[in-house]
C-alpha cells in the first residue's frame, strides 16, 4: 500500500464515498427499517417478504460491493476510478430525478439524488483542482 501522502484529493473523495457506501450497505442488511424510514416509507407496511425489502437487500449488497471496489480501487492506484465515479454518480442522480419526476419514486428519493450529485461534484472538483495544480 502506498503512503497516505501519495494519494490524490480525488482518491480521498472516492475512498470516503466507498467507506460510506460500505457502511450503508451493512446498515441496509442489518436494519432495513431505518432505511425505509429515511426515504419516508412506513416499515410496518412492508413485511419481510415484501418485494421492496428484497430489492433493498439487493441494493445493500450492491452498496457493499461498490464501497469495496471504491476503497480497493483507490488502494490499488486505479487513476481512472475518480473520473468513472463522477460519470456513474451523475447518471445515478439523473436517474433518481427522472424516477421522481415520472412518479416512479417518491419525492423523498430527492435525498439520494442530491447525495449522488454532491459526490460527483466534489470528486469532479477535486479532479479539476488537481489538473490545475499540476499545469
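Sequence proposed for the structure above (135 residues):
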Amino acid at each position: 500500500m502506498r503512503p497516505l501522502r501519495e494519494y490524490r484529493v480525488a482518491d480521498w473523495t472516492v475512498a470516503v464515498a466507498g467507506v460510506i457506501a460500505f457502511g450503508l450497505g451493512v446498515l441496509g442488511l442489518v436494519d432495513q427499517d431505518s432505511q425505509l424510514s429515511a426515504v419516508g416509507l412506513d416499515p410496518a407496511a412492508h413485511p419481510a417478504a415484501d418485494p421492496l425489502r428484497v430489492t433493498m437487500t439487493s441494493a445493500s449488497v450492491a452498496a457493499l460491493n461498490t464501497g469495496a471496489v471504491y476503497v480497493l480501487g483507490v488502494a490499488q492506484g486505479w487513476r481512472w476510478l475518480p473520473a468513472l465515479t463522477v460519470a456513474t454518480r451523475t447518471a445515478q442522480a439523473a436517474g433518481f430525478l427522472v424516477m421522481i419526476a415520472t412518479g416512479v419514486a417518491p419525492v423523498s428519493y430527492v435525498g439520494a439524488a442530491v447525495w449522488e450529485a454532491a459526490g460527483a461534484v466534489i470528486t469532479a472538483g477535486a479532479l479539476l483542482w488537481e489538473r490545475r495544480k499540476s499545469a
